[in-house]
Structures are given as structure tokens and as C-alpha cells.
């Protein structure tokens, strides 16, 4: 949409520019038309004045002819008067002839002016017609552009509508995917909890087995720990092999560039300052050329040693400095090449000094030679540094005590710094040698062979510089990986592994790999994806019901404990009630016996009162006797009431427990549903926000499209109005031209 809007804006600018140009052209045409109209009016006025003068002259000529006829008629009658009148008529004729001649000349001049004006009018008409045709073609082109733009706008509107429908479908799919992702996250969280619990139990079992069954721990001794096979890191091995392949490619580039540099330097020594084809070169340069001729035997082994190192790094081995035995061979090859550089350095320096002493050497060339003199010394010193650090890296595979693991990072860092120094020195050599080559071309005795050799040396130095820069950046970028990957070993090992123990460790690793391969069995089929999707709801509900059941069990245990406490309390209350009942019964018996003795004494004393009290005593005697006789019935009734209430209490407690369990279950379900509802609301809010943003973007784009469409429609209407006005003005001009033609005719 942005690109479409940008194109529409660019086309809008072009159309605006075209409209402005057309307006300027129409304004200039109007001005020219006004000027031509003024000139035509002037010519028309002149024509009117000339026709008026011509009419006057014609009338005057007629009068003169009439006067001449009258004079001739009179001359017949009077000859004398004829003679006098002839003299007068001759004078008049001469005056008339002169006047007539002037009028004829003036009429001729006016005819010439009229002809010129007519020709100019025709040219103007032709120009206006050509301009009219051009404007008509431009109008047709603009109309075609307008039609194409309208077609494009309709296509873009349809495209935007299709995009809107696609976006709505995409939003729906994203919403479904979001729901699925939430369910998957919940499932993964549950799996994580299960795995943590399982791993914790397995860890405890493993620790118990180790403490009980393992009699000897070999990781405590570095000598025995060196024989343990470290964890195999296949990704690390593949990365190291890839890095070794890149390093081999860079070494190949450096070897090729060094071979070319030494070979072309040998050619240069033989042709400058003295050409060996025409004269004998100095013994120093002969010896220097002889040594340079042997460069291949020292340079090519570097590539071969790097190739052997690359082939020793495979996917199945454990690549550390203790096991990279081929690094020692590469270090030896680098040492031999360093000896070659040390051997040729004095001859190279003396050759440069001899060149400076030559008569062909200028002051500027001598300065360049001295700069190269210093650069060659620096180059040899850099190779000495590189050989020192590479030989240090080769020590763990031969003498582990020669380099500690803590110094690995130090050695790799200095190798990277040395490679950057090597790159800087080569850049200086390239700069100084290019200046030297340009100065040598200005020497009068410079030959084409010398120029070609200098170009070859410069190209080899440039290739050497590029290769060194690539190697330095490669080593700096992978410095941390080299330090980390080339120093790992058995678990807990803090010291170096000896080469013999490393070889034993590799043998054990191969045996272990073969044993594991023999035990390897095909894995069982996993749960199908559709089945897992179908069971995810069951899993979620089971996890939530499990949590609810756990809470319900906890609450039930708490209620059981409370009920036990209440049971004990009521047991104690029942025992106390029994004791109180026995005491009350004993008190009642004692009170009945005392009351009987008192009534007998009173009856003997007061017979009247005895009769009254006899009734009361009989009643009282009847009541306690009745109560004592009904005591077993009361106890049985109390037992029945007690058993009834106990059964009722048990029933109510069971109902209460059932209601509590249902309430806990419902509470767990409600909580799970609330959790799901909150997650659904959150997802709904996020999706509504995304949908709102998408709808806002769609409305904004539609508004922009409508505004651009309206602006283009306004511009098109303005252009059409302008074209109509131009057509009207052209028709008016045509009509005026036709009227001018008619009037001129």
C-alpha cells in the first residue's frame, strides 16, 4: 500500500506539472492571440482608411473626366477659349497626373502591405492550427492517462478489499492459533511439573544408588579423570570442522599470494636495476634469485599441513589441543618457512641498498626503497611472532606441561593481534611498492617487462593483503569459540590430558559408541497429534479436578478432626449426665424414706391433721412409688430418644458432608471456569485490540485512497474544464480568423 500511495503521489506530481505547463502555454497563446488581434485591428483600420481614400480618388477622377468632356465640347465652339483652356487643362492634367501617380504608388504600397498582412495571417493561422492539433493530441493523451488511472484506482480498491477480507480471515486463524497455544502452554506447564517431580525422584534414587553402590569415584583424581570420555558435542565438532575449512581456504589464498610474490620478486631482481639478458647482475642478486627460486619447497607445505589438520577434525573425534597432533606438523612447516624468510632477508635488504646506490635511482625512489627495507624487517618479525604462538598451541599434544589451560585465551588473543599486525604491514608494503612502481616507470631505461613485473608484484601483494585481512577478521570473530571449544575435557578436569591418556580416551569413546550403537533400538511411536489435541481438554479438566479433589480431601480431613473432637466432647457430656442422673435418683430415694417417718409421727400426734395429711402423703407416696416403678421405662425412653437423635445427627452429618463435598467440587469447577473465562477475556481483549488496530489501518488506508481519488478526480475535472475552455477559445479564434479572412477578402 505504501508503494502504491508513493506511485500515485508521483503520478499526481507529474499530472500537476503537466496541468501547470498547459496553463502556461494557454496563457502565452492567449497573449499572442491578443497581440495578433490588435495587429489585425490596426490593419483593418488601415484598410478602411485606404478604401475611403480610394473612393475619394475615384470620385475625383470621375469629376475630372466629366470636366474634361465638358471642356472638349466647349473647345469646338470656341477655339480661342480652347487654346487658353488647353493651356489650363494641360497644367491641370500635369497636376492630376502627378497626383494620380502618387495615389497609384500609395495604392501599390498599400497592396503590398495588405499582401504581407495576408501572408502573416496565413502563417499565424497555420501555427495556431498546428498548436490546436498538438493540444488535441495532448488532451487525448491526458484522457488516456485519466482512464488508465481510473482503471488502476478501481483495481487498487478491489485489491484493498481483497486484502481486507484476507486480513479478517487471518485474524480469525490467529485467534484460533492463540487459543491452541494457550492450551498447549497449560499442557506444557503441567508436563513441566510432572517432569520436575519425576526428575526430583530420579535424582534422589540416583543419589541413593551412588552412595550405596559406587565404591570408587575416579573424578577425584585428575590422572584417572583424564581417561573418562567427555560429553560428545556434535555441533561443536561440526562448527570446528567448518572453521578449519574456512581457515584452509584462507591459507590457500595466502600460499598462492606468497608463491606469486616470491616468483615475481625473483623476476624483478633479474631485470632491475640491471637486466640479466643484456648484462650480468651482481653476485648478491644472483644468490638472492637462487634462494627465491626455492620458495615453493617452503611455502607449499603450509597448505599441506593445514589440509592434514582439517582432515584430522572429524565428527566422531574429540577435538582439543591435546588431540590435534597435526598442529605440530603445521607448526614445523611454519618454522621451515620462517627459516626461509630469515635466510633471504639479508639478501633482500642488501639488494635494496644496492638498488639505492645505482645511478638510475632518484631521491624519491631511494626513500621508497628504504621504507620497503623497514617493511621487510617488520614482516619477518611478524612471522616470528606467529610461529612462536602456533608452536605454543602445538605444545599440549606433545608436552602438556608446556602450556596451561588458563593461558589458552592469552595465546589466541596474541595470535589475533599478530594477524592484524601482519595485515597492517602488508598494507604498508602494498602502498610503498605501488609508489616505487610508479617512480620506476619514470626511469628512462624502464622496459615493458619491468612494468609488467611490477604490476604482477602489486597484484600478488594486493592478494596477500586481502588474504591476511580475511584471516585476521576470521580469527578475531571466532576467538571466543576457539578458546571455549578447544579447552573442554572430562567433567571436573582442571589440568591437561596427556597425549597417551587422550589416545586412550579416544579408544574408550569408540568402544562406547560401538556399544551404544549395538544397544540402540527403534523408539516407540509417539502419541498422534490429533489424539493429543483431542485429549488436551480432558487433561486440563483432570488436572483441575485433581486440584479440587485434593482441596476437598484436605477439607474433609479437617472436618473429620473437628467431628472427632465434638464426639469426644459429647461422650464426656453423656457420662456426666449419667452421673448426675444417678445422684438425683439417690437423693429422691433418701427424701422418700425421711418423708414417710415424719408422716407416721404426725399422725399419732394430730389425728385430725393426720387425716388431711394422709391424703397428701398418700398422694406423695403414690407419686414416688409410681416414679420408682416407672424408672426403667424412663431410661428406655431416654435411650430411644438418644438413639433417635444420634441417628438423626449421623444422618445430618452425612448430608452435611455430602453438601460440603458437592460445594467444594462446584467451587473447584467454578474456579476452573473462572480461570478459563479470564484467559478467554484476556485473549478476547488482545484480539479485539489487534482487530481494532487492523480496522483502523484499513479505514486509514481507505481514507487515504478516497482522498487521493478525490484529488485526482478534482484534478481531472479541472483539466477537462481547462481543455473545454481551451477548445472554446480555439473555436473563437477560428471564427475570428474566418471573419478576418472574409473582411480581408
From TrEMBL:
The keyword Ligase does not apply. Residues 595-623 are annotated as: Disordered. Residues 26-74, 132-198, 670-711 form a coiled coil. One of its GO terms (cellular component) is early endosome. Residues 4-100 form the Protein phosphatase 1 regulatory subunit 21 N-terminal domain. It is found in: Early endosome. Keywords: Coiled coil, Endosome, RNA-binding. Transmembrane segments: none annotated. Its main location: other. This is Protein phosphatase 1 regulatory subunit 21.
